[in-house]
Amino acid sequence: RIITQKKFLFDSTLKRMSTISMVREGKGAHLKVLCKGAPEVIEKLLKEVPENYEKQYSYYVKHGYRVIAMAYKPLPNDLNCNFISRDNAESELIFAGFIIFQCPMKEDTLEYITKIKEANC
């Protein structure tokens, strides 16, 4: 179970969003920053970049998949979330993995692309 205590909303300029959440793990709970965003953006926020990080996400992007990077950072449980800045929260993150998914084109997409090209738009 995850209880969100503070949100840093998605920002199209930053290409990421984060929450500060209490995450229940086993019998305990831990305060963590949970962050997701564009892989090239998250990479710059990581404490340590895994080997082949760019190669892995680039492979899927080149094959038409969408890729989101996930990262986290443990925080002291007694931290007052109101006083942590976005920059502080989203620094020194630990890589958690990639979410890779497909967004197939609709059946009539190719037809409309062809029409647009023919119309010189």
Automatic annotation (TrEMBL):
GO terms for molecular function: ATP binding; ATPase-coupled monoatomic cation transmembrane transporter activity; metal ion binding; P-type ion transporter activity. It is found in: Membrane. Its main location: membrane. InterPro entries: ATPase_P-typ_cyto_dom_N, P-type_TPase_V. Keywords: ATP-binding, Magnesium, Metal-binding, Nucleotide-binding, Translocase. GO terms for biological process: intracellular calcium ion homeostasis. SUPFAM superfamilies: Metal cation-transporting ATPase, ATP-binding domain N. GO terms for cellular component: endoplasmic reticulum membrane. Gene3D superfamilies: Calcium-transporting ATPase, cytoplasmic domain N (3.40.1110.10). It is a multi-pass membrane protein. This is Uncharacterized protein. It comes from Euplotes harpa.
